[in-house]
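Before the break, one more example. Copy the sequence into your notebook; we will annotate it together after we see the structure.
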Amino acid sequence: MIEDLLYRIQSNVDVATAEAAITRLPAEYGAVLDLHYGWGLSRREIAALLGWSPGKVSQRLTRAISLLKYELHPEAFQKATAIINRSM
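Here is what the structure looks like once it is written out:
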């Protein structure tokens, strides 16, 4: 299932590297990634389990994926930030 996450974020890192990056995320983000991609739970199932709304779960998943991209490829974000700053 982690492979599905890596495909979604278009990353070619190995599963162990991705799992290590997930552990560095704040707990609430790592938990939703693990529950959704690791355990295969739906957003509704995660919402029921954590006592959150499905919308909050979706927001957390979106933010978690963004954070994971940064964890796995910080150089890409630094390059994008430099380009944005030069254009302003």
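The two ends are 40 Å apart (CA to CA). The chain has one domain: 2-87. Try to locate both features in your own notes.
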